[in-house]
Design goal:
Length: about 190
């Protein structure tokens, strides 16, 4: 019983470190955040941090995975719980979800995109973790396009995600959801061609 309690305690400590690092990385960036800042915010020692994560990059990967889990789940739930019937309209709700985040003050952009940008061609494992998030969103969008019996569903899904990612970057820079609304309008035009 004591061993099981220790495992739960270690798991909780690991989760706390990930959540804390996630918050700090999201606000300050990855290169700008040193291990000392993470240690200071969590109250754990460097030794404990490195016991759970072999490196700062390992912690970043865990934070990207955490982001993917919460964000993908939130997007999928948002779409599934909507009253929208048409599959193409459901697919494009990803823009509505994003606009809601920006309008609520989330102006840090996409955590996975931020990590991928900072570590482009520098850390393949971090890039791979980021790609899981993007590819999952492409698959989610494609699911609705397949329901709509769109033959080029994969190509269209990639085009929509490209607009989505552009909208994320532009809304981050302008601190406005207008780029998201414009991207959704462009996505509707593209979808109408299929």
């Amino acid at each position: 019983m004591e061993k099981k309690i220790n495992q739960v305690s270690k798991s909780q400590k690991r989760d706390e470190m990930i959540k804390s690092a996630y918050d700090i990385f999201y606000k300050n960036g990855f290169h700008a955040t040193g291990v000392d800042a993470i240690v200071d915010s969590t109250g754990i020692s460097k030794r404990t941090l490195y016991k759970h994560f072999t490196s700062k990059e390992g912690l970043i990967i865990a934070a990207v995975n955490y982001y993917h889990q919460i964000m993908y789940g939130a997007i999928a739930d948002y779409i599934e719980k909507s009253a929208v019937d048409k599959p193409v309209d459901k697919a494009l709700m990803i823009f509505d979800f994003l606009a809601g985040l920006v309008d609520a003050g989330n102006l840090h952009g996409c955590f996975a995109m931020n990590a991928k940008t900072e570590y482009a061609r520098k850390a393949a494992e971090i890039e791979s973790a980021c790609d899981v998030h993007t590819n999952s969103l492409i698959e989610l969008i494609e699911k609705y396009f397949l329901e709509a019996e769109i033959k080029e569903s994969k190509v269209l899904s990639i085009q929509i995600i490209m607009l989505f990612e552009g909208a994320i970057l532009r809304s981050k820079g302008t601190e406005s959801s207008l780029p998201i609304q414009l991207a959704k309008s462009a996505a509707k035009v593209i979808c109408s061609q299929y």
